[in-house]
Write a structure and sequence with these properties.
Blueprint (H helix, E strand, L loop, with lengths): L1 E3 L15 H11 L3 E3 L9 H6 L3 E2 L8 E3 L14 E4 L11 H9 L3 E4 L15 H22 L18 H18 L9 E5 L3 H10 L4 E3 L5 H6 L8 E6 L1 H4 E3 L7 H6 L4 E3 L10 E4 L13 H8 L8 E4 L21 E5 L4 E4 L7 E3 L9 H12 L3 H6 L13 H4 L2 E4 L2 E2 L6 H7 L1
Parallel strand pairs: 1-2, 1-4, 2-3, 4-5, 5-6, 7-9, 7-12, 8-9, 12-13, 13-16
Antiparallel strand pairs: 6-17, 10-11, 14-15, 14-16, 17-18
Helix pairs in contact: 4-6
Length: 434
């Protein structure tokens, strides 16, 4: 039996791994039995799950496989179960080591959605594009509020937070109307040009760019940013978009050309390349994967230099990856949809909620797709549903090599029957340190 747990990370988490339509398909076409924990907060009503053929019950003890979205609280882990959720453990995140230790002690199996990939390391089950959608909407909202706090009246002030729209469709249409207003009225000379930088080439970054492109935009290469800033004839009624590839974000210390394989093997040979362009950006939307050991994309010393010259152009850093202590040193905590931003105060080295202060506004909501809960769940379930019959039939008590899992799933097994799998044995160091 497959169990579908209720999400309990916070009041905003309304997503679910499978919608009632997915459940109906599994019951009808694959004969899968499903038990769903009731929830008053979920984007889909309990009655719709029972109508789809699911058993509604708090007790998931009879379920061999339990599906969730966010981390399962340590005290709610059931012994001997196979769990699928986003565990946020593969970088040795210290705040989730107690959870990982509990899974091991309880003889559980853990499969992380984020690690389910094809042979080219492309993720197969993801919310990424919806994180980009919600993250960019929130970023534009944050820009409007920051500029308003500085005394600038702009069309960005009309943009709402992602969850304040009834749907993604309503949000995109509204932002397009804001874009039409910008096209006709232009941007204040004191703010021109408004430049938004994007890192990453995956679904997160692509989703964010889709939203940004609802506004009147022009693409500009990183190498042309300085000329753009200096050009007095630049258009007044467009925003500028610049994409930073890995070769822009990381540069060799000795000045030689970028080599991705070398970066992976010897990150110490590289330094931050993004710092060159930080002074020219109004917003930075960070959606790239960052690995410990690599140079930070935004260091506190980089921000100190910007603010030492007075109020810089940079207003908002949107860390859609929400990698605390990761690529952006100013991402010191996660935020929530109800309180989505803080200012990292460079004098006090602290985060203060809101948009005022000497430092950048940081948007770091760690469950962005929950702001578009129904649509993002439908998309996620569409990518997950095909694997459920296989997971239901699997004899999970057998050794890993005897499970018959496809390689895409097998490589995502972090723990099996209470032991770290060989691919994730490196996490032992983080567990021991904790």
């Amino acid at each position: 039996m497959i169990g579908l747990r209720r999400e309990d990370k916070n009041e905003w988490e309304r997503r679910v791994a499978l919608t009632p339509d997915h459940v109906a398909e599994l019951v009808r076409d694959a004969g899968v039995a499903l038990r769903v924990q009731p929830s008053v907060n979920r984007a889909f009503a309990d009655v719709d799950y029972t109508a789809a053929g699911a058993d509604l019950d708090d007790d998931l003890d009879e379920c061999d496989v339990i599906l969730g979205i966010k981390e399962v609280p340590t005290e709610r882990i059931l012994a001997g179960k196979t769990y699928l959720y986003f565990s946020h453990t593969t970088k040795g995140q210290d705040y989730n080591m107690p959870m990982l230790r509990r899974l091991i002690e309880s003889g559980c199996t853990l499969i992380d959605y984020e690690q389910i990939t094809d042979d080219r390391n492309k993720r197969l089950i993801f919310f990424g594009r919806y994180a980009g959608y919600a993250g960019m909407i929130n970023t534009l909202w944050a820009l409007g509020r920051r500029l308003e706090s500085e005394g600038h009246s702009t069309a960005f002030a009309r943009i709402r937070l992602a969850h304040d729209y009834s749907s993604l469709d309503e949000a995109t249409h509204h932002i397009a109307r804001v874009g039409e207003n910008l096209r006709h009225t232009g941007v204040s000379p004191s703010l021109r040009p408004i430049v938004c930088g994007f890192t990453g080439s995956g679904n997160v970054s692509l989703g964010a760019q889709e939203i940004f492109d609802r506004l009147p935009t022009l693409d500009v290469a990183p190498e042309d940013l300085a000329d753009l800033i200096a050009d007095p004839e630049r258009p007044r009624n467009v925003l500028y978009k610049v994409q930073f590839g890995r070769e822009h974000r990381f540069v060799r210390r000795d000045g030689d050309g970028f080599d991705g394989e070398e970066l992976a093997a010897h990150p110490e040979r590289y330094e931050n390349g993004l710092v060159r362009w930080l002074p020219h950006m109004t917003m930075l939307v960070h959606g790239a994967f960052w690995t410990p050991g690599q140079p930070r994309l935004v260091g506190l010393d980089d921000l100190d230099r910007l603010w030492s010259r007075g109020e810089p152009k940079l207003r908002v850093i949107a860390d859609i990856s929400c990698d605390i202590g990761g690529g952006s040193a100013a991402t010191v905590k996660a935020t929530t949809p109800g309180n989505p931003v803080y200012v990292f105060d460079l004098d006090r080295r602290e985060a203060f909620d809101g948009v005022r202060g000497r430092g950048p506004v940081i948007m770091a909501v760690d469950n962005l797709p929950c702001q578009l809960a129904a649509e993002s769940s439908e998309h996620f379930g569409d990518t997950l549903v095909r694997w459920i019959p296989l997971l239901d039939r699997c004899a999970w008590r057998r050794p890993l090599e005897e499970l018959g899992l496809p390689e895409s799933i097998r490589r995502a097994v972090i723990v099996h029957r209470g032991d770290l799998t060989p691919r994730f044995e490196y996490l032992r160091t983080s567990l021991d340190a904790g």
